[in-house]
Each structure stands twice: as C-alpha cells, then as structure tokens.
Amino acid sequence: MPASVAVGRVNLSHPQRGQALSPAQIQQDLSLIAEAARASQPRLPAVLAAIAELDQASQEFIHHWAETLALSQQDLAAHFLAQVPDALAVLEQPAIEGWLLKALDTFDQRGLAAALQVIQDLPACIAAQAVARTGCTLDQVAGFLRHFIRALGGRPLAIVSDPLTYTDTEKIYLPALLTTLPDQAGNARLLKCMAVYLWAQNRFGTWRYGTVGQAITQLDALGWQVFQRLESVRIIARIARELPGLAREMDSVAYVDDAARHAWASFSAAAHTLEDPHAGVQDSLALVDAGRALVLPPPRQFQGEMLPHKVGEVFARRVPREKDALRQALANLTPDAVEKDPDNPDDAPPEVAAEGEAGNRFSLAQTAPDAAGEPQYELRYDGQKLALTAELEALLLSILQDLGELSDEHLAPSGAAGTDPRDEQGSPGATGLGDVSSGPGEVFFYPEWDYQRQHFRPNFCALTEQLVPEGDDAFVARTRQKYRGLAKSIQRVFEAILTEAQRQRRQPHGDELDLDALIEAHVDRLRGHEMSDRLYTHFRKAERSVAVMFMVDMSGSTKGWINDAERESLILLCGALETLGDTYAIYGFSGRTNRRCEVYRVKTFTEPFSLAVERRISGISAKSYTRMGVAIRHLGKLLAQTPARTRLLITLSDGKPEDYGSYRGRYGIEDTRHALLEIKRDGIHPFCITIDREAQDYLPHMYGLANFTVVDEVMKLPWKVADIYRRLTT
Amino acid sequence: MLSAEHAADRMILEEPYYEVLGNEREVFTAAYRNQLPVLLKGPTGCGKTRFVHHMAWYLKRPLVTVACHDDLTAADLIGRYLVKGGQTEWLDGPLAQAVRMGAICYLDEVVEARKDTSVVIHPLCDDRRLLPIDKLGELLQVPPEFCLVVSYNPGYQSVLKDLKQSTRQRFVALEFDYPQPDLERRIVETEGHVGPEMAARLVKFGAHTRNLKGAGLEEGASTRLLVNAAKLIGSGVAPGVACASAVAHALTDDAELLQTVHELASAVF
Q1: CATH code at A708?
Q2: Looking at the 3D structure of chain A, how many domains does it have?
Q3: How far is residue B9 from each of residues A217, A333, B61, B64, B183, measured CA to CA in Å?
Q4: Which of A192, A242, A519 sits opposite B83 (nearest CB)?
Q5: Of A599-603, A628-632, A649-653, which gets the smallest average pLDDT?
Q6: What is the pLDDT of residues A359-384, one digit of tens each?
Q7: In sequence order, what DSSP letters do the residues of A608-660 get, joined into one string?
Q8: Is A261 contained in some domain?
Q9: CA distance A539 to chain B (A)
Q10: Residues of B in contact with A200 (CB under 8 A)
Q11: What is the pLDDT of residue B58?
C-alpha cells in the first residue's frame, strides 16, 4: 500500500521505494490535482484518457511533475496536464523538465500569471527544441562573453538577452538563441562577433552624445541605413588595426554569400576614407549624403541594429548624473590638492577660484597615446598631475567615451551644498519576495535546493543576522558550579592536546635526531662544555590551525531541558576552546518561512570571549522552526572567510530540518544535504551532534556516515560535546 | 677575512636591464645615503627584484638575496656553528654576511618568514643599526654602506601573513605597479627579443587580461609573463600557443576564464 502525501488540499498516492503506482492510482491522482485547480479544464477527460494510453514510465513521469507543480501551485499542475500529451508527442523528457523548471522559476520570481504563460508557451518551447541542436543559446556563452567584453576594456557593458541585437551604451542586447549558421560552434562564434561589434560601437565612438542628437534630426530612414553601413566600415577598420585576430574571425562569419562579400568590398572601397586611423563618427555622418547614391550591401551578420532613441534615453539619464558625480569627486579632491601645494599658501579657496574669471584649476591633459594608439588622459590641478582612484578613473573613461572631451562645466567642483545623488539602486526586493524584513540589519539572500526540480530556487530565502539578547549571569555561575569537576577534566584533556599537537624539538626521546641540537651539543663537547641529552625531535601533527563554527538549533522544539543542555555545553566548551586557542564562533539559527530566516549572533570569530558572550549564551532561547539549509549556507560563508587550515561547522540540533510550509520531510532534508555539500566544496567539514534518536534514519544521508553523533541522553550533552570536539580536531 | 672575497663574488658587474618608472631610483638612493631601510610593495612580476639588482649595480654594492619561506628562522639569517674536521666553526648567515661586507641585503617576500625574524630585523632598521649575534656574544655595528631591502605583495597574502605595523613603519616604502604601456612595450621588446610590433601586441594582450583583475582573475598577466611569452615567440613558437602556455595557464585553471584568455590572445594577433 503506497503511503499518501498531502499536496495542498488533496492527498496523493506516493510510491514507496521500489514500488510502482498502478495506472488507476495515477489516473485518480491526476484527476484530483486537476479538480483542485481554480480554473476548470474542459479538455480534462480527453487529456486523462490520452495519458492512460501512454506507457508506464511516461505516466509516472507525468505524475511526478504534476505533484511537484501542485506543491507550488495547483493551477500550474492543471495547465501542465492539459498540455502534456501534446508535449510528450514531440519533446524528450529532459526538454519537458527544462520547460517546467522555467515555469517554476518564473512562478517563484514573478508569480502565477507569468508562470502560466510559460506553460502555455509550449509551441515556442517545441520550436526551441528543434533548433537546440544546431543553435547556440546566449546562456551557453554569456559567462565567457562577460569576461571577454570586460577584458577588452572601456565602460563595463552588461550582456542581456533581447529579441533585437543592439546596444544602448550600457548593455549589449543579444538574441537568447542564435540559429543563423548551420552548426552550434559557428553560432557561438557569431554571438561573440555580435558582442564585439557592439562593444566596438561603444569603444570607438559611434555613440557620441552630440552626434546622436544630430543624427536623429538629420537622418531619414534611408540615411540611417547608409550611416549604419558607413560606421560598419569605420569600426571594422578599427578592429582590424587593434585586434587583427578578432577581425579575421569576424570576417569569416560576416557574409551570407560571396555576393554580399563583393558588395561590401565595393562599398568599403567607396568609403575608404573612413578606414583612416583618425576617422571619427562625424566623418561617417558627413559621408551619408554621398553614400545615398551607392548600392547598399546587406548588413553584416553580426551588425545588429542601431537604436538611437534607446541610446538617447540612456544618455539623458547618464550624462548629467556622471557630470554631477565628477564634480562631486573633484570637490572631494580639492582640499587634498590644496595641501599638496605648499608653495602658494595664499591660494584662494577652491570654490572662489572655480567661479572666477580665470576659469578652472582642474584641467584634463592629453598625454602620449598608449600602445594601442588610444589617447591617454591625466587629470591635473594647477598643472600638477593628480593620482586618481580606480572609481574616478572609470568615471572619467565613461564620460570621455560619451563626450570625447570634458567641458569646463564638468571640471568645476560642485559647491559644498552638494547635489543629490540620482542613483536609483536596484533593491533585492526584485526577487518578488515582497516584504522580507524581519528586524534590523542587512538582509542576505540565498538560494534553496528543490530536490523535486533538481534545481535551485534562486534568491529564495531572506536571512537576517540578529544579536542574542544577554541573559542572566546566574545561569553561567550555576553551570560552572554544577560541572566543576567536569570542567577541570575537560581543561586537562585540552591542554594535553595543545602540547601534543606541536612538533617538539630538543626532546630526550623521539622519532628523529634534532640536527640543530646535535650539532650544538657536539660544539659544546668540543669546547669542553657539558653535552645536552635532549637531542631528539618528537613529531606530532602540524601547528594547530582550527576554526570552528557552532551552529545551535534554536527551534521551538528545543524549549526546556534541551535548551539548557545546549547552553551548558557551550559554556563548558568555550573555556576549553580558550585553552586551545582555536578560532571559534557561535551562532543560533531559527526562522519561520523562507522570508524570515534568522541567525542569532552569540560570538563572532574575531570577538574575544567575554562576560557579554557568556551572558549571550545564557540568553539563547527557543524560537520557531528549523530551516537549516539557509543557515548552513550563511554560516558556512562566514566560516569560509576565516583563515585556518581546518574548518569545522558543528551543528547542535534536536531533530531534522523543519519549517512552516513545504520544508518538512524530504524537501528539507535534501536542501540541508545540498547546503552541506556546497560548504564541503569550500573545504569545510560539517559535523552534527544531535539528540534525536531517529536521527539514524536521515543523518547518514545528510552528513555522511561518519560525520554525526547521536547523544542519547540530553543530560550527557555537556560531557559529550567536549569529548567529540577533542576527537574531531586531533 | 672571508668577507672580502664574498663581497667580490656578490658584486653585480654588468648593468642589469631596468627601465626607470618614475622617481624610484632617486628615492632609493636618498634612502640609502641616509641609512634608511626600504620596503618594496607591488604585484608579482612587476620588476621589484630586478630593481634591487639594478640599484646594487648603480650604487656599486654587493647584493645578498634571501628568498623567504615559512620555515626561515632568525638563526637562518644570522648564522650557526658547524663542525668541520672535528673543529667547530661559525658560519655567518646571509644577513650577518651582508652586514659585515656592507652589502645590500634583500629579503624577498618577507611576510613568508617566521615571526621571530622580526627580532633581528627591528634593531637593524631603526637608528640603532645593530645586529646582535647571541651565540658569538657579538653585537655587530652596522656599517653605513649596509642597506636592508624587503619586498612584499599586498595583493594575495592571507590575513595571517600581513606585515605588522611595528615592522612596516621602520621602512621607506616604494610602490611598484606594471609600467605604462609604451615603457612596458620597450621592456618586452628588450627582454623578450621580439620586434616592436609583437611587443606592442603582447602588451595590449596583457592590458586586456588586467581588466579582468577582481572580475575572475586574482591578478592580470605580469610583465614577467609577457616577457616569457615574448621569449617563446622569439624561439619560433606560434603567438597563440606561446600566450596559452606562458600566460593563460599560468593565470588560472578556471575553464571559462581560460577560454577568455585564449580568445584574447587570438584576438590581438
């Protein structure tokens, strides 16, 4: 008899390991899912009948995904069922999974309506599948392209997918999928060439602030066609001079056929003045009227569009903002510059000088061009070269890329009144999480692993760090009193670790001779002094370099004696750790839903042990649920930043991961397991100390066979924790 | 005394090739004349060691170089007793040697050395100018010709290996960076024995990789790497292959970044 799982309002059959669902159960479940949806599906009987015709594997596949979707939203599942027979007829199962994952991600980020749209877009998905073998998606090359374009230099340009191929001088828009050429490698190359060409438009001055406005008023539709080709001649010549290898590659994908190649050759010959190293966008613009008489070749395949209005919009935002930013930066520079100039102590204040007739004291000087022939600039103050920060240099570069030069207005430092910063920062709320705040402090976003999708839900959890309120001293004193004997023995054991952990030189016994000591002894003997008998080295493990993070379960279920035992263990352990000199931190964790995950700071790695830390330990109290994955990711990140040869993440817990909503059961276990795998990749050893007697069922899966201990009596926890720590780190 | 011979061995007779970047030679000379120790900061492969060689030649002083490592103790720097033919014999460490011969002593990557080396570095570096040799019961007064130079790369060391304030505040610091493009081109041309055109392309390639610093790469291609690539090219290796072997794989193991560096190399040639 299969177990049943509750999905929303319906109970579904759930296959036990090694058992298959019968077709009748599948039919029953699917109709339950479809009926639970708000929108009724008129095609449902027909669809179910069609599904019943499929083979067992396909039916189970459909059942699995219907259940997964229903866990997020019932309507998603119902719409999926309506589409799935058609989809299975033309798509492979992995392609269907891709389609559904996209729908689920869309649901997490943009809500139901958008996700339903994705599900209904099946025909588009089918079309994409047909070309996926020969086409190249932007996703495949985006990572590489970002690095590549950044390395080429100039203002940083983001790479974004868009139906049109163009640049607005802040982003490069490329098609999400390219199928122009017959093979995938060729399409990948063409995507790269598109990105490079659009980068070159930015870098080599196609989009100059003044020129764009002029071109918009001056050019008609045909004029733009001519201008676009003239610029292409000019830019390709620039690329050929500076990046000849790239130019050859671009040439190999530029033309549809030989006719196009010839057409371009004659067009370029007619516009050959633009191939001059000093030709600029103004020269192209001046040639437009003459170019109208020429035969226009078809656009080069990587050329994309020119959308001057989009560029204009960006200019309208950026140019004034960067001007303000520069003037602000110059104002900040001014006092320094004055101090650097002790020869003229009676300088007027900079504001006055800036407004004065004599003009600006800041100036921009062109210096010798660099290896590439690009002009180099330096900013001067009263003729003296100023050292620039990286930000200011990037800002100047960006402005010069837009304007070609700096106006006097740019070089006038803004007054003390200052300008209001116009930067509108994107907020993390863009993930569609709504209100995520829970108390003060920074909000961190982490992904969560969904085992059913076999995929991350990006930025799904919002986590805040909070300080544990200080508790009473009495608890600390009581614990010390209660475990007086134990504390002493723990102390002795740990002191022993400390001495044995070092490589000991000049020992009376040992594994090897201590050469330095031996020579010294020999020297002593020759000179008539007494020889030492401490001539051996005793090798033990290398120097101790351990950082440990204690992650304490503060879920509601720890209330009472478990919480007491946790706190007592921590107080005893802190004393021992101070002896060892290991770096350690203590954080509690709890939370309620993915929007309110919380970690509670008891002691950071850098904070010394103090009375305040002790009081915070005694202030650890039971809160709500156990959403473990996100806490592991956050604390693992903190631990990974701590320099140490050995890094340990020790979890003190009373049970399996659990949270309000779907985090119960397998989902939570799988997310926790995945988070642990992630931190292991960062070189962290996770270990779990738990008092859940059923832990044998799930801990080996989460932590691995050897990486946990079940303490069967809560009262023993303080004894055990110190002992386990000793075993772990020696 | 042995040290006279040693000093002759350690003189640099031929001028090491070095292009002056700014005022570093004047500052170094002034520090030397005033018996101040010098700290060289800068990324790897930008010419710190070459600069010290150049200055030793320029100031006509012998040069003692110690590459520091994490097992280097104060005794390794000062010296120890050895037994030779049944007799004990004291052997000066490099630092004591340098002091005796009035040399320039260069401790490369000083943060790598054990903490106890600061015990000997500190009294050397302030106005006491002393080198205590406990085992000999000797207190060496440092001659005015002696100069201590240390280098470190602030870029990639871990927090554990930062230079302590008490140490760094004893030095005159000179900051190094990669040279300006036309200067770097000249260096690659001269050192790597390639033509100006090829040198310019290599420098351009280097500049492109430096744009990736902090955006994937820990460091861009250093001048040294570019010179290495130039040397390979000079021996007939194809430019793309030379850049892959001498630069790309030396910079990163990440597949995506390797592809980027490869494509940058093929873009500029």
Answers
A1: 3.40.50.410
A2: 6
A3: 76, 51, 11, 10, 32
A4: A519
A5: A649-653
A6: 567 777 776 655 445 566 777 777 77
A7: PP-HHHHHHHHT----SBB-HHHHHHHHHHHHHTS--SEEEEEEEESS--B-S
A8: yes
A9: 16
A10: none
A11: 94
B102 CA to chain A: closest CA distance, Å? 28
Q: What is the CATH number of domain B3-175?
A: 3.40.50.300
Task: List CB contacts of A122: < 8 A, sequence separation 6 or more.
Answer: A83, A86, A87, A99
Burial class (CB in 10 A: 0-12, 13-18, 19+), A242: buried
Using the 3D structure, point to which of A132, A162, A184 is the last residue of a domain. A132
Residues A185 and A249 in one domain: yes
pLDDT one-digit tens code per residue, A449-475: 888 778 888 888 888 888 888 887 778
Each residue's pLDDT tens digit, A77-92 = 888 888 888 787 777 7
The size of the A-B interface in CB pairs under 8 A is 85
Q: Do B82 and A519 touch (CB under 8 A)?
A: yes
Contact by Cβ (8 Å): A224, A320: no
Pair A146, A286 in one domain = yes
Instruction: Specify whether the CB–CB gap between A434 and A349 falls below 8 A.
Output: no
Domain for residue A414, yes or no? no
What are the structural domain ranges in chain B? 3-175, 181-268
Q: B19 vs chain A: nearest CA distance in angstroms?
A: 17
**Is residue A114 domain-resident?**
yes
Q: How many CB atoms lie within 10 A of CB A58?
A: 15
Interface test with B, best of A139, A147, A192, A518 (most B CBs within 10 A): A147
Task: State which of A484, A511, A539 marks the end of a domain.
Answer: A539
Using one digit for the tens of pLDDT, what is the confidence trace for A156-212? 888 888 888 999 988 999 988 888 888 888 999 999 999 999 999 998 888 888 888
- A558 and A530 in a single domain? The answer is no
Nearest to B81 among A144, A368, A519 (CB): A519
Kindly state whether residues A149 and A197 are assigned to the same domain.
Answer: yes
User: pLDDT truncated to tens, each residue of chain B (269 aa)?
Assistant: 445 567 788 898 899 999 998 899 999 999 999 999 999 988 888 899 999 999 999 999 999 999 988 778 788 898 887 777 777 788 899 999 999 999 999 999 888 887 778 878 888 888 888 898 887 888 888 999 999 999 988 755 444 456 777 888 889 999 898 898 889 999 999 999 999 999 999 999 999 998 887 666 778 899 999 999 999 999 999 998 999 899 999 888 878 888 999 999 989 88
Instruction: Examine the domain organization and report whether A621 and A523 are in the same domain.
Output: no
Determine which of A25-29, A419-423, B32-36 has the lowest per-residue pLDDT on average. A419-423
User: Do A290 and A363 have their domain in common?
Assistant: no
Name the closest residue on chain A to residue B221, using Cα atoms. A151
Residues A266 and A201 in one domain: yes
Tell me which long-range contacts A724-728 makes (C-beta under 8 A, separation of at least 24).
A724/A687, A724/A689, A725/A548, A725/A573, A725/A576, A725/A577, A725/A650, A726/A493, A726/A494, A726/A497, A728/A648, A728/A650, A728/A685, A728/A687
> Measured between alpha carbons, how far is A673 from A659 in angstroms, rounded to an integer?
15
Report yes or no: A243 at the B interface, CB cutoff 8 Å: yes
Domain that holds residue A337: 310-342+350-403
The answer to whether residues A203 and A280 belong to one domain is: yes
Using an 8 Å CB-CB cutoff, list chain A residues near B200.
Answer: 371-372
Query: Is A237 a residue whose pLDDT tops 80?
Result: yes
Structure tokens at A361: 């004291």
- CB-based contact A526 B215, cutoff 8 Å: no
Q: Which residues of B touch A (CB under 8 A)?
A: 75, 80-83, 86-88, 158-160, 180-182, 184-185, 200, 203-204, 207-209, 211-212, 215-216, 256-257, 259-261, 263-269
Q: Both tokens of residue A270?
A: 């007619």
Of A209-213, A563-567, A671-675, B192-196, give the range with the top mean pLDDT.
B192-196
Best of B23, B76, B88 to disrupt the A interface (most A CBs within 10 Å) is B88
Q: Does the beta-carbon distance from B212 to A143 stay under 8 Å?
A: no
